[in-house]
Amino acid sequence: MFVGDCVAELSKLPAHSVDVVFADPPYNLQLEGTLHRPDQSLVDAVDDAWDQFASFEAYDAFTRAWLLAARRVLKPDGTLWVIGSYHNIFRVGAILQDLGYWILNDVVWRKTNPMPNFKGRRFQNAHETLIWAARDKDARKYTFNYDALKAFNEDLQMRSDWLIPICTGGERLKDDAGDKVHPTQKPEGLLHRVLVSSTKPGDVVLDPFFGTGTTGAVARRLGRHFVGVERDRTYAAHAEARIAAVEPASAEALALTLGKKAEPRIPFGSLIEGGLLAPGETLSDAKGTVAAVVRADGSLDWNGITGSIHRVGAAAQSAEACNGWTFWHVFREGRPVVIDDLRQAVRKMMGNPG
Amino acid sequence: MFVGDCVAELSKLPAHSVDVVFADPPYNLQLEGTLHRPDQSLVDAVDDAWDQFASFEAYDAFTRAWLLAARRVLKPDGTLWVIGSYHNIFRVGAILQDLGYWILNDVVWRKTNPMPNFKGRRFQNAHETLIWAARDKDARKYTFNYDALKAFNEDLQMRSDWLIPICTGGERLKDDAGDKVHPTQKPEGLLHRVLVSSTKPGDVVLDPFFGTGTTGAVARRLGRHFVGVERDRTYAAHAEARIAAVEPASAEALALTLGKKAEPRIPFGSLIEGGLLAPGETLSDAKGTVAAVVRADGSLDWNGITGSIHRVGAAAQSAEACNGWTFWHVFREGRPVVIDDLRQAVRKMMGNPG
DNA sequence: ATGAGACGTGAATCTTGTT
DNA sequence: TAACAAGATTCACGTCTCA
Questions:
Q1: Beta bridge partners of A283
Q2: Which residue is nearest to nucleotide C11 (CA to C1')?
Q3: Is the pTM of this model over 0.90?
Q4: Would you call A308 and B154 a contact, using CB atoms and an 8 Å cutoff?
Q5: Which controlled-vocabulary keywords does the entry list (chains A, B) (predicted)?
Q6: For B285-314, what is each residue's pLDDT tens digit?
């Protein structure tokens, strides 16, 4: 591990000495005011100095510099991973294409537990994007452990969308005061999948933005060598202690983190998108005493009371709560069909994507 | 619908005339051999290195041209959607940031049934990326139907990852020979969610790469107007026939679920004017630990601190801010009733006068 | 000891209308 | 245009408190 600026430190390494680069650069978040949750508590923003850039141009220059330095130390058949959000990932992706990297995949990290959008002004930002790229367009022998991934994924090809929780609980590093050490610590599960898919035991992994050493900890556990560069001495110190405590895990334990799957939740609106229900159709309860109209936005209208299938179902029964899936029916060929059956049909259409 | 080059046709439209742009541009022109510069000259590949540079440059110029043209016709509070894959989306995203668009979200379309990766050299490419951006950074009144999407998604706010099947079966347009008409026809379910989330009935939607008219078909069904531009006469002809067969949904089915923000404002004083609260009555918080007195002028008095229900509520909690409507309660028949319920009663009175 | 419920928190470009 | 005021707004978990 080296403490220092990543471009300067990388220039000291020999060329073509690294199998894989994993980089979690600053996102250039460009936050302005403060943000409160509905309960008035303050959201702890990423306002650290290392994430501040004067302009897109400044961020681009920074990005070009470290991507160039990383490319020099990569072996000809090496690959590079970068993670980012919509704030920066498009710039990073375009620049790495310009520099001659060849994109192999973009991969979506779907968070099981993302922070909500508190003000209701956008979609909940529930994912981040990783780019996986070869050093050169004509690289043929880069490492991709296709069969291992397929075995871990219940004999299905590993997809480009990964469902992994954010880093919380005991895994999250805390200082003596109980505060998080690093504002953006990545989950080990993410690095695990990255390294299992694109490195072999004994490979050298370089992380130019080492932070608190997630890459190093997972690399050590998986029997990979690592080189980390971190500018902040506090982060580096925590990383060192953390990695020293890592014990290599058994092969069985490795399989566990990759096998997780979740049953896909089907929103009611998907029945409309999928054409199983048309806007304007009428839903009723099992006895046919209540009638509500399906609206295009995925809500119901019962005598002017509108909302989700559950809310309106509750209102129609004067109940506190209601499972709309089993309450509402639609007529098909003269018979009432519970909409839960339509949901099953959608699930079949949807196949089995994690 | 217009048949022609999108930049040329867009230049004929009036400025600030469009609410939303949905664009599905060519993903990687260099592979398809149809890459033209904005002046219509054909890009001629020479050798690999030069070809790569020339191709990205040309694609960037093409992208800049149509994004600029689209920005001119967008209303100040309009938004733009672009869909792409890792081949092009990073360049598109960086350029639209450079042009002054302000990214609101990136959204991942997760395919339920993606094509497998046959060679087993990469992850299965199971998603595409959409960028949703406002025309301007400081646009505040762009349309986002938050409450409709929340109802759609069973009372959870809509995430940035959408699970939707690809376009197959009866929805996929075929020609007389039984071959698919367009190589990349998008599913109507995807456009449904795009238009429900970011447009209102009656809005104008522009699609500069109209193809076989998915945007037009869904817009028509959802009671939105559309403008489509397509260069290929065959695609345009199929689009026209397809859209003509679409049955628009009824006005009632198109109504959007609206939240509190859309409701008329009721000053607190109206509760006193309407006789629902009497001057001198006592309000308290939900637990009954705080008590304030209602004054005839519509202000509260809590231990000598006077002001609006919000200010006094904040002071009573030692908080920065407070929604007085949900904080304060009044006793009715021995039970605490939140004053927000009284406000609803006033709204009903005002909605049905007499 | 156990369970129910309160509390805290995470890479966030997060309001709107009037004066 | 800047300042002020009204008032709308959250999901999944892990941990802690208290009965």
A1: A292
A2: A184
A3: yes
A4: yes
A5: DNA replication, DNA-binding, Methyltransferase, S-adenosyl-L-methionine, Transferase
A6: 988 889 999 999 999 999 999 999 999 999
